[in-house]
Amino acid sequence: MDWKAVYGDFSDLPKSEQHSLFQAIKDTLFPEPKEDIANMVGEIREVRFSSGLACVHCGSVNNKRNGKYRSRQRYICKGCGKSFNDMTASPISGTHYPHIWLKYFQMMVDGVTLPKIAEELEIHVSTAFYWRYKILIALRSIGFSTLKGIIESDETYFLESDKARNPSRIVNLANVAVKRRSVASAKSKSAWLSLMTETETFCQKLLDVDAPLPMKSTKH
Fold first, then answer.
1. Is-above-0.70 flag for pTM?
2. Three-state SS across the chain?
3. pLDDT at 9
4. What pLDDT was estimated at residue 216?
5. Which end of the chain is flanked by fewer CB atoms within 10 Å, N or C?
6. Residues of the chain scoring pLDDT < 70
7. Cα–Cα distance between 5 and 11 in angstroms, integer?
């Protein structure tokens, strides 16, 4: 197909579709380099092993090169015999998406929610959650220094509503006397007073010598 014919069809498209087609051609012919964290291996090595290359398993400094795997340098420890690379035992160890980790870091720092991150980076929500967990565990292992200095604070206002409040209503608390008494309570108190009165009368008769004792009547 002649490019002039394609250009003629391109002129017939709406402006929005022209822009989309132009962007697609641009991305195909001039792709932007991905922010692959694998391209930062040199910087990561300098920071992680600033005091010398040490085994991430036993801490021994007696190591040697052990070939490469997927263009990444591997090392073998002469002390424990285990191999490792610059990413071993790090949050990005074994990742299948090294090109989106930097963007994930930035979105996490910006406070973007996990569903939004998963949608933007085209990964599953469980993957975004697992990555955040790995980062938080790594930060906890590093530890945090004590912050010192002047702390500044400002007043904070909270909205408050008096809806459904009646300040004039008397609240019946446990220790507050009330005017009315329940029927069951009144009956029980009346029966108790009657019993006390009868008991007191009977005891008084026992103490009174001149008073005749009540005798049980018998029938023959």
1. no
2. CCHHHHHHHHHCCCHHHHHHHHHHHHHHHCCCCCCCHHHHHHHHHHHHCCCCCCCCCCCCCCEEEEEEECCEEEEEECCCCCEEECCCCCCCCCCCCHHHHHHHHHHHHCCCCHHHHHHHHCCCHHHHHHHHHHHHHHHHHHCCCCCCCCCCCCCCCCCCCCCCCCCCCCCCCCCCCCCCCCHHHHHHHHHHHHHHHHHHHHHHHHHCCCCCCCCCCCCC
3. 74
4. 47
5. C
6. 1-4, 6-7, 10, 26-42, 142-147, 158, 161-220
7. 10
> Which one, of 51, 34, 45, lies nearest residue 85 by Cα?
45
d(CA 93, CA 90): 5
Place of tokens 């949050």: 91
